[in-house]
Sequence to fold (127 residues):
Amino acid sequence: MASGGAQVQAWIKAFQKLPQEVRAEKMADVVLEDVKRTAAAGTSPTGVAWPEKKDGGRALANAADHLSTVVSGSTVHLVLTGPDAIHNYGTGKDPKRQVLPTILPQTMAEKLTARVFKLFRGALGIR
Fold:
């Protein structure tokens, strides 16, 4: 059985590896999944329902398919393409239907926290 001191030293070595473990690349899928979830539901990232189309139909039905991520350094960038991008901000003609978050939504924060803890546990060898 290892001594308590040996275990602490092992954890210190594991913590030194964490900057390599907890990187933006390992968070991008969480960010994308959460934003795709709200877009598929027809809501803003904070859960506000989008205005319907003029004919009463569902607006931006395929917005989730037009989302992707780009990782740059320690930042995850969300990219929205096509006509859906115009609706994210709205125009005089097109109502605003926010797809991209401007703040960190609670659900995304919880999922990112869970991912970080999972990576920490993995780096420390804790299940």
Remarks:
- DSSP finds four helices and two strands in the chain.
- Residues 88 and 97 are 5 Å apart (CA to CA).
- The chain has a mean pLDDT of 90.
- The helical segments are 4-21, 28-41, 84-89, 106-124.
